[in-house]
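sorry for the late reply, my laptop died twice this morning and i had to redo everyting from scratch. anyway the thing you sent over, i finally got around to it. pasting the sequence first so we're on the same page, its 151 residues, then the predicted structure underneath. double check i copied it right bc i was rushing
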Amino acid sequence: MATATPFNPKSMVDSAWKIIPFFQSRDIHATVLLYTQELGFTLGSEEPHFASLFAGPKAASNIYFSLCREESEFRASSAMLALGTEQHEALYAGLLARRNQSKDETFEIVEEIRDQEWGFRQFSIKDRDGNRLTFFRFLEGSNGEELWAGE
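ok and here's the structure:
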């Protein structure tokens, strides 16, 4: 009689190669404009009730958005995005300049850039729907530069 292999979820989830947060949006098209024009994401697809946006090599960072029309059901979400050292600093400087020059509040910087005791340098923004993105880089070690070396 064959012995059953014990259930080992770790061996299964160790095959993970991507995680995709799912955010809600009150206006899919406005969300797409913010994330593509202001934050530099690439549009994967846009439908009336759904959008897929991505960034990074091989679409390493994805965010899916679904339309939520019922205010009582709306829940803001958050995610963290790791960036290269120079890109992190340049994105912050650019977003700060846009915030200071624009009257249109498509996003809000809710955490100014700073070093954290846990080894990140980070800043956070919120979109019009209250979804929060924290952009970070490691203070020491790899910041992914090897992923786009030679591009």
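The chain has a mean pLDDT of 90.
thats about all i looked at so far, will dig more tmrw
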